[in-house]
Amino acid sequence: MRSGAAAAAILVVALALDLSARFCSGANVTYDHRGLIIDGRRKLLVSGSIHYMRSTPEMWPDLISKSKAGGLDVIQTFVFWNLHEPVRGQYDFEGRKDLVKFVKVAWEAGLLVHLRIGPYACAEWNYGGFPLWLHFIPGIVLRTDNKPFKVEMKRFTAKIVEMMKQENLYASQGGPIILSQVENEYGNIDSAYGKGAKAYINWAALMATSLDTGVPWIMCQQDDAPDPIINTCNGFYCDQFTPNSDKKPKMWTENWSGWFSSFGDPVTYRPAEDVAFSTARFYQLGGTFLNYYMYHGGTNFGRTAGGPFITTSYDYDAPIDEYGLLRQPKWGHLKDVHAAIKRCEDALVATDPKTTSLGSNLEATVYKTESGKCAAFLANVDAESDATVNFNGNSYHLPAWSVSILPDCKTVAHNTAKINSVATVSKFVRQLSRDDSAAAAAAAADAFISGWSWIYEPIGISSNGAFAKRELLEQINTTADQSDYLWYSLSIELKEDDKNIVLHVDSLGHVLYAFINGELAAAGKGSHSNPNVSMDVPFSVLPGKNKIDLLSLTVGLQNYGAYYDLQGAGVTGPVLLKGLENRSTIDLSSQQWTYQIGLRGEELRLFDGGSSLWASHPTLPKNRPLVWYKTTFDAPSGTSPVAIDFTGMGKGQAWINGESIGRYWPTYTSPNNGCTDSCNYRGPFSASKCTKGCGEPTQKYYHVPRAWLQPTDNVIVLFEETGGDPMQISFATKVAQSVCSRISETHPSPVEMSSGSGPTLLLSCPSPNQVISEIKFASFGTPRGSCGDFHQGRCGGSGDDLAVVQKACVGLSRCNVSVSTDLFGEPCKGTTKSLAVEASCAYGKGS
User: Fold this and answer.
1) Active site residue 162
2) pLDDT digits (tens, 9 = 90+) for 273-329
3) Are 587 and 676 in the same domain?
4) Is 124 a catalytic residue?
5) Which of 335, 353, 508, 768 is the most exposed place for a label (fewest CB within 10 A)?
6) What is the DSSP string of 314-360?
7) Maximum CA extent, the chain
8) What is the DSSP string of 362-388?
9) Are 832 and 821 in contact (CB under 8 A)?
10) Are residues 676 and 767 in the same domain?
11) Do 678 and 784 lie in a common domain?
12) Which of 124, 254, 345, 720 is an active site residue?
């Protein structure tokens, strides 16, 4: 007879094979109150969001492979309309935009796909995913019962559906797509649209189903979603969610693994134990489809970040980080949760849950079938106190804010508060240039920037396309978001005795630079919560004509809220001159302003690195506003992910070999207080509960995909707005500094518990090409701290502990160490002991 562990492993493999099999003749995908039904079989599904355009095609196979290894069945992605149809009728599905290729990569890996067409998406994406040209269609009102909008929305939705059909990608055709989504979180704001909202939702549902995809459609956060549309939940917790019909399944489309970041704010992180708790609670109380948002967040390349003020990084504290590396222990801990829940699948999809109270904040939920299959969940939803409960004649210890999963209603396969996964501590390692040597490391920066050239961006109007208006123009209506930049320029006659005057400017944001007679006089910025800018600028008067040049910037367009498309930007006024000698305040708002959309450097395509205008000189201009910089560099050796550290620069944009890596802004730091070095996972989570990076740049490192680099002679172009020193920037690679594992002698892993063997500590390197090179810490007893900061507790930690782990692990890519007194001796009788290990990994010879 096979052991429980072997049987469980065979079951997981069988389920994976079952899901990965292509539907040769098409699959019938329907649903009932307990879940999605694929070819007559109810399914318990785990999904994760990966947005294809936030990574590169070269990254997709690895991201999807890691997702499958983490226990996912489904990949979910949005489809961003403005990405694919930037000009009405002109489509782009090349490179990072190749939606069909992305779906096929998931399919080839054996995963299913949930396609969220929308076409309104949000996702902190510029303008919520809508193309800005929609705004200029006569009579249009977005996201309501408006004919011009509905015509365009249906046209694009039908375009995407037809593309998928042509490639036979719907499950009904034998492909992987089992779900589609229309609209997104409209129920959060639909009351603002009055009677038109209900008519619009009914129309959207009818429009979507008429496209005959052969798979169900969903609407998230839409309690009045009409049949047959499934309404679903988004949030940090959705265990209490109930669909709007007893014929629809309980589905969670966004379990937020973390939160987005905004320039000027600290960075949010969500403890792995809390994500696992929310997941187990959802499946405990009747859920059968859950999606992590995000499973890999990726990068907002170019000008795709919305907000405004959303950072270039969209890491989202996801199980797979921005660079494609596993975030441990979150990835591994969730993998263990998925494995335990999958062992409950037969019982979960066969019947309804029955929940009973075991005491205050204590619950037992049982799934029991007529054939005798049984699965149970024991939950302690108290935020402070652990508990011991009796269930089915056995005693179980339940830590606060945790769920224990019992696939046979007897044996605990996993508890969400007990992490048995490997943990990693990653760091960015600065890369020296080809001119560097070990002895000259201190001079690395000087060596790196040899060969810089530059071009000054003209202050004010420099384009033949400039135009004049006797009014202040709102920026988005003027630029149509073709550039972040809009110049407002004005000349005014002033008297010699007008000395202590002040220029007052009110702007809808998001950033404003004021130049007086060709010199930068002031700079102002808004924030994610308040993008407006108001400035009082000291005015150094010249007798006669004085020139005022205002450079207004957007930092990603609004993407969320009712009528968000009507929120403006730019200098809408008033613009006033105050403090004039013997004269009242002058309102400049209605005088004749000259406008220029974008920069001269953009018009010349300096970001491609070409042009004969680049200047070279031994004295590099530093800390000057409006400068373009260019140099070449060699790609860092190896295969580790690459980033640029923009320390020393102010604010601007960067390109590598003509590819935009996005907006950089290292000088926008977060407030000095409010962050937590460690965060108690117990109790309800919010985006402000666990934050880090106070007093530091919201984003310091910026992802450069390896696919964009060649071995030598890569071109980097920077446009610096406020002033910086490009000699201070550096390239870095992201590597695992330490790998750690910790396990208690009385809390074995799921497989070990089911097999009846003792607990075993697993230690493994992040890459199969690496081996464990050093054991930094090993202690059997009561070690304290976390990965990267382990220290001895009140007992244990003898020199023998280190020697035992060294013998078992050094030189191997992964190792197992038995957690027992037989191996380590007895450091303290009568005490629950654990083994904690921290190690370093290095690439082996030939890697």
Assistant:
1) no
2) 999 999 999 999 999 999 999 999 999 999 999 999 999 999 999 999 999 999 999
3) no
4) no
5) 768
6) --TT-SB-TTS-B-TTHHHHHHHHHHHHHTTHHHHHHS--EEEEEET
7) 102
8) EEEEEEE-TTS-EEEEEEE--SS--EE
9) no
10) no
11) no
12) 254
CATH number of the domain bearing residue 554: 2.60.120.260
Judge if 488 and 591 occupy the same domain.
yes
Token digits for 515? 């130049």
Pair of tokens at residue 214: 């052969």
Q: What is the pLDDT of residue 845?
A: 57
The crossing angle, in degrees rounded to 10, of helices 99-108 and 60-69 is 40
Whether residue 802 is contained in a domain is answered as yes
| Angle subtended by helix axes 330-342 and 272-284, to nearest 10 | 20
Instruction: Tell me how far apart the alpha carbons of residues 602 and 230 are, in angstroms, rounded to a whole number.
Output: 46
Block residue for tokens 């407002």 = 488
pTM: 0.93
At 185, give phi and psi (nearest 5°). 55, 30
Give residue 117's identity as a one-letter amino acid code. I
Contact 446, 728 (CB under 8 A): no
pLDDT of residue 746: 54
Fill in the amino acid letter for 390.
Answer: N
Asked if residues 346 and 31 have their Cβ atoms less than 8 Å apart, the reply is no
Host domain of residue 790:
735-843
Residue-level pLDDT at 450: 56
d(CA 686, CA 286): 24
CA distance 359 to 829: 33
Are 142 and 84 members of one domain?
yes
Question: Are residues 767 and 619 part of one domain?
Answer: no
In a domain, 53, yes or no: yes
Indicate whether 162 and 39 sit together in one domain: yes
Euclidean distance between CA atoms 332 and 740, whole angstroms:
12
| Beta pairing class for 770-781 and 659-664 | unpaired
Peptide bond into 649 cis (omega under 30): no
How far, in Å, CA of 210 to CA of 554, rounded?
A: 39
Task: Answer yes or no: is 730 within a domain.
Answer: no
Mean of per-residue pLDDT scores for the chain:
92
- Is residue 330 domain-resident? no
- Do 138 and 195 lie in a common domain? yes
> Structurally, how many domains does the chain consist of?
5
Residue 432 pLDDT: 62
